[in-house]
Amino acid sequence: MSTIIVKTPVTVGLQELFHEHKLSKKSVVLFDSNTRKLFGDVVLDALRAEGFQLVELVIPAREASKSFSVAYRLYGQM
Question: Which of 32, 40, 74, 78 would disulfide-bridge 61, Cβ 3.0–4.6 Å?
């Protein structure tokens, strides 16, 4: 099941969400290139301030990025 949460600013409650879902302090954050430009620094800074060690992955913002080959490549980067 996926959860989509929309809040302004984007970091409101982000740390609590990670804690609520019991995510590891070592986590992967996946952006497409558009969301990375808009929110990447803010999201990463907020999580790092809470002690998260993050691996950041960015995929191109296009339909072709939604493929098994891209998923396989991302898995290899984790």
Answer: 32
